[in-house]
Amino acid sequence: MRNQPTVALGHLLPEGTPIPLIPVLIIIETISLFIRPLALGVRLTANLTAGHLLIQLIATAVFVLLPIIPTVAILTAAVLFLLTLLEVAVAIIQAYVFVLLLSLYLQENV
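^ that's the sequence the OP posted. Answer follows.
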């Protein structure tokens, strides 16, 4: 950055950018680079939280239905087990996507 500022900041600007827009675009692109991993983390957290909430709701339904209608409660428990397997698969996929995109973002800036 100190020895070659144009090379270091060059990837933040498209070719042919008008001179008056250069400072504004550098600020916008720098903010964008910091927000990308943060948005990625928020998306990962939201997806995992939604799955956990759904599992909690179905588990509560199983406990409420057990004394009233045991057959439906057992079927709901089977759905809960399948949903838990799905949640584990989603967590693995989300972790893979998180690591992949984060490494791409970091590779872009190194």
